[in-house]
Structure formats: structure tokens, C-alpha cells
Amino acid sequence: MKDLIVRFNLSDDKYITAVRLVAGAVCALAETDVEAANDFKVSVTEGVIMLRNSGCEEVEIAFSCEGGVNASVTGFGGTPHAAENDFSVTLLSALLSGFDMEEKDGVVKRLLLRL
After folding, report:
1. Could you give the CA distance from residue 113 to residue 115 in angstroms, rounded to a whole number?
2. What is the rounded distance in angstroms from the CA atom of residue 105 to the CA atom of residue 68?
3. Do the beta carbons of residue 27 and residue 69 sit within 8 Å?
4. Cα three-residue angle 5-11-2, rounded to 5 degrees
5. How many CA atoms lie within 13 A of 103 on its CB side?
6. pLDDT digits (tens, 9 = 90+) for 59-115
7. Which of 20, 70, 86, 90 is the most exposed place for a label (fewest CB within 10 A)?
8. CA of 62: how far to CAs of 3, 13, 36, 67, 81, in Å?
């Protein structure tokens, strides 16, 4: 599978629900077990919420299942600002085998999620 890219505005929570379905579909393509798929869906959702809490207006998620299930979650627009992300970072670190966060001046710009 080539990368599947989803981009949407963070003003409507319905898109967050839809992206959970996409994350689940990517896991199904990679033949991931149900527990791991649920962890990945929670992780993608948490990443999107982190970017929204950091003031981003839009998010783009590039999903891939080559070499494992991965997502690159990038925020755009809005009025970026530093946000409290300790709980989210702890959760993502616990649920994923790999998690990287790109920040600039305390503002989250991009998350790399690896199941």
C-alpha cells in the first residue's frame, strides 16, 4: 500500500471520528490484531487532539503500513502555541513501539507514530 493521506479542519470533531475509521482500515490492511489496532486508533486520535490543543487549524495524517503501521501527523495554520502535553506523551509512549515529536519553541508541529 502506498501512503494514504487524510487532511481536515480541526473545527469539527466528526472528522476525528472519521480518521479513527481510516486508522482502523490501515491496521486491517496490515493484518494487525484487534488490540494493536485499538491502540493505534487511540494514538492517532490523541495525536490529532494534541495538535488541536496546540492551536493548529488543520491536520494532515499520512498513513503507511509498509514496514509496520505508521502515521505522520502534521499540524497547519491557526495560532500555534505551547500546550500541556505530558499526559498525551505518556499515553503515546505506552501504546506505541515508536513515538517521535517534533517541536519548535514548545509548539508541537509533527508526530511520528509507529505501532
Report:
1. 7
2. 31
3. yes
4. 5
5. 14
6. 999 999 988 899 999 999 999 888 888 999 999 999 999 999 999 888 899 999 999
7. 86
8. 6, 19, 19, 14, 23
